[in-house]
Amino acid sequence: MMRNIDPHALQGQGAAVSRNPEIQGAPFVLPKERFLELRLQPTASKSVVLGVLGCLLFLGLWEIAHYATPESSRKFMPPVSDVVTALYTLFAERNFLHDVMISCYRVFASFAMASLVAVPLGIVMGCFGNLKALLNPILSGWRYLPAASFIPLLLVWFGPTDSAKIALLFIGVMFFLLTLVLDNTLAVPKEFVEASLTMGASRQEVVRNVVVPAAMPAIFDSMRNMIAVGWTYLVIAEIVGAQDGIGAVMMRAGRFLNVDVIMAAILTIGILGVATDLLFRAAQRFLFPWSIERR
Amino acid sequence: MQTIAATRPAESSVRQTNTVPLRVSNVSKTYLKGTFKSLDNVSFDLHANEITAFVGPSGCGKTTMLRIIAGLEYPSNGGVEAFGKPVRGPGPDRGMIFQAYTSFPWLSAVQNVEYGMRVLGVPKAERQERARDFLKLVHLERFADAYPKSMSGGMKQRVALARTLSQNPNILLMDEPFGALDAQVRWEMQELMIELIEREQKTVVAITHDIEEAIYLADRIIFFTRQPGQIKADISLDFKMGKRYRQKEDLIALPGYGELERRLFAMMREEIKRAD
Q1: Which residues of A touch B148 (CB under 8 A)?
Q2: SS3 A6
Q3: ipTM of the complex, rounded to two decimals
Q4: pTM more than 0.90
Q5: Nearest residue on chain B to A287, judged by CA atoms?
């Protein structure tokens, strides 16, 4: 049947049809947007709505969990409202702000020290192969030692002081950060270095004005990720022999089975962690506007 | 007649010790403890203000040769002299343009150009002024304060070119500089190169896979064989009669163009087959 139709005749017919203003093709309809659209980037406002929705979903599940718990043990699974109340009481009546500030100080001080060591060291190890060969085997091994296992040692050395806690956080963060910074430095395109060398740059010039600026956005990313690890180590550091700090408050509450206080403290750490992350991202946008937008 | 012929080379070689922009003598390069020979006893001189194209199949060692000239790699044997001085490492007398984009993303176009001059110790006020001039030379004056992030590949390459030219190198080395660009931009860049080199009077070495590009840009083509890299042919593009043609169509119309292109394609085919 089809074979009998002259393709040219068909073509002509088609052209005639499309020229006829009365017979139009079906109007173009956008395909319906699906929720699970591959690689779809929602708009900024939609992202916020979805994010809030996600939080509400979590709180809803929490509330359900409370009511699903048998009556007898319900106090171990307090509802959201109890935790919020506990959080308010902590701040209003028990000077929780002091503990929060102490914890912030420990995280930031230890992180600053870890960065001061890991960033320059990682950069020079990434620049000079001999230094990397000399130091990497001994330094990278430390990452596999659980930071918590240093607690007894640090207690012997420093006693139950701030230094012991900061040292623990330092150990937990520094060696990971070092490896990340080393990788970030090695990832600097070799053509940048070679271009600079062919322009007559000295080694110092290449390291300071090519490798460092080229690697900095990625290093900053690594730092942002590692300060999150610092927050997760905080409680471990404050469990042993601590009088103050968020972790100490949690341990004390645990002794009296005050689950709402424990949860309030966990929530506080989470909020502080997210705030730190946002701070870092803002700083990143401010410091490296030239760098390719990530995520 | 014979006496002239006999005395001439001697005369010129005395003069050449200081004026040959680049002399490559018996350069060999082996890798993997000598089991892989990338270059085998390569010798040639570059002539002042001439554009030389290195042509050859992939893996013929032409990039290695260029990197040895740049001082980024060292020969296993033999040596390279730039204006009579042995090459011991990279230096601003031999500017290099890479195939990968090397305009620094953390610097604006004008700061990128300034970088080259800053390394050479040009005072700030002077280099700021000259950087703008060099951007104008590559037709980027309107984008002086733009960052590479917002530039096309061709623009990034032009920034790198301006940065290198601002250092006023004796020799310009180019490693497939337009290899990553699309056909139309590549064509624009080739025309820009002719324009720049006519104005700046540079000795240039450009690596290319592209036979048409080689004929268009070069005054001389050095054709490398594959594994080990040796000079298969050293061709002077006499059919251009000492002129450079901005417009490709004018060049193609010249007698001798087709014959040269045919010959180069045949050589390329021969090399690719030989290595199989």
Answers
A1: 290
A2: coil
A3: 0.87
A4: no
A5: B106
